[in-house]
Amino acid sequence: MDPLLDDSRSRTKKSNYLKVVVGVVVLIIVIFLIVFLAVDTLVKVNEIKNHLGEFYNFALNNSNSRSVIHGYKDSAEYVIKQLEDLCNVTTQSFLVPITTEISPPALSLVSPIFVDYQVRVDFNSMRYGGNGSYDITRPVFDVPNLGCNSSDFMGITPGDIALILVPTSGDCALITKAMNAENNGASAVIFYNSQNRNSLLTSRVRSAGWFPNEDYLVTIPVITASYSLGSTLKNVTQPSVHLVSHNEILIVETFNVFCTTSKGDESEIVMAGAHLDSVAEGPGINDNGSGSATLLEIARQWLKSSNSAKNLLKFAWWGGEELGLLGSRHFIRDLQDNNPEELDAIILYLNFDMLASPNYIPQIHDGNSLNITARNGSKVITQVFVDYFTSKDWAYNFTGMAGGSDYLPFNDVGIPAGGLAAGAGGIKTEEQRKLYGGLADAWLDPCYHKPCDNLDNISDECLSIFSQAAAHTIQFFAEKTDLREFLAESNK
Fold first, then answer.
1. Contacts of residue 63, Cβ cutoff 8 Å, sequence gap at least 6
2. Per the residue annotation, which of 321, 341, 430, 431 is the catalytic one?
3. Which of 136, 223, 328, 414 has its CA 20 to 30 A from that of 52?
C-alpha cells in the first residue's frame, strides 16, 4: 500500500471523527438551550397574538363577545386543547347569575305634578336590579335611616315604591337595602345619590361573592337616580310615580380551567392566573384575552421545555370574573369547604389582567396596599417584579390591589399575591406621558369594556414587556427552593 495514500486516509478519518464530535457537541448545546433556556426568552409576542386571533374568532361567532353565555366556552375549550397533552388539565364547574336589561326602563312623576325623566341621565336600571317585566304606578315611600334595617320600613303600604338615599360613606350594602324593601312589601326601589355625587350608580345589587342557595337576588325593579330626581320625590307632597322595567336574571353554569404540572412539591404550590371571560358588550381581546393568551403561551413554553419546577405549578383561567370574580371566589370557597390542605399549600398567586393596553402604563401590583395577613409575602412578589424591570432598564409604576381582579379572593384568605396590569379606564397624565410615553389626557384603554376591544386594541410593545416579566416571575417562584421560608425571611 502506498504510504502517502494510507496517510491521506488516516487524515480523512480523523477529520470526519472531529466533524462528528463537533456536531454532537453542537447538538447537545442546542438541546440544552432549548430545554433549559429561561422561559421569558421563549415566550414570543407573535405566538401570543395567534392565541388572541383565535379568541377574537370565537367572539365574532358569538355576538362579538366571549362572556359566560357567549364565546367563553369556545375560548376555554381552545385553552384545554392547547394544553391537554402537556399537563394535568382539569375544569371546575359552578353557577353564576347573569343579568340582562331586556328593554330600557321608563320613569315619570305623575302626582302631584307630571315630570317625565330621561333614562341614562336622570335615572337608570341597575345590574341585578329585578327579574321580570313590570309596569307600576304607585305612591313613593321615603325610607328613613338609609333602609339598612327592616324597621326602617315601618309604615310602608304594601306595593309602595321605596325611595332610599345612598350616601358616599357610612352605609350598608345595596343588596341589604333592596332585600329589606322587598321583604317589607315594596313593589320597587329607587336609590338616589347624595348631593355630592354627580354620576349615577353602576353597582351590582347583589352580594359581591355570590353563591347559589346562599345569597339573595332581588326580584322587584331597582333603579338608580340622580340627587335632583330623588330630592324632588322626597320633598313634593304625596308623590306617585309610573315605573316601567324589564330585566332578566338567569342562573347558568360555567367553569374554570386548570393546568397543573406533574412534578413539584405539592406542599408548596405556586399559582398563576388570568380571567378568560369578557364582558357581554365586547370581545375582550385586551380585557382579558391579553392576560389569558400570555399565560397560555407561558404554560406551553414551560411545559414543552421540560423545565422541572421545585414547587408544584398550577395555571388557572378563571370564568365569571366580569360578573364579580365569581370563578376565583368559587375556587377559594371550594377549597375552604372541601380541601383545606390544598388551600394551605398555596404559597402565592400571580395575576395577569390586561397586559396590552394601547396607551399603557407598566404597572406592578403593590404588595404594600394589602391587608396585613397577605402583605408581607406580597411585598416580596412586588420586589421580584421590580428587580426584573430594573434589570431590563424598563420604567414601571405601582398600582394598588384593593379589588377589581382575581387576586382579591386569595388576599382575603391571607395568600400573598401580585401581578401586572397595563391600565383600564384611567386617563394618562402629562407627567405619566413623560415617564412612559403614549398620549396625555387620553384613556389607557379607550375600548375598555366596549365592542372595539378587538385585535386593533393591542400594544405589541406592552405585550412584549409584560409577557417577559410574567414568564420570568412565574419561573422564579416555581424554581425557588424553600419558598415559604423565602417569603418569610425576605420580610425580616
1. 70
2. 321
3. 328
CB contact set of 62 (below 8 Å; sequence gap of 6+)? 70, 71, 74
Active site residue 253: no
208: exposed, middle or buried (Cβ count in 10 Å: 0-12, 13-18, 19+): middle
Residue 452 Rama label (left phi>0; alpha psi -120 to 50; beta): alpha
* pLDDT tens sequence across 301-349: 999 986 678 999 999 999 999 999 999 999 999 999 999 999 999 999 9
Report d(CA 78, CA 293) in Å as an integer: 11
Whether 326 contacts 92, CB under 8 Å: no
DSSP string for residues in 83-108: HTTTSEEEEEEEEEEEEEEEEEEEEE
Which of 129, 176, 185 has the alpha carbon at shortest distance from 153? 185
Half-sphere exposure of 441 (CA within 13 A, CB side): 0
Residue ranges of alpha helices (H) inside 213-290 are 227-235
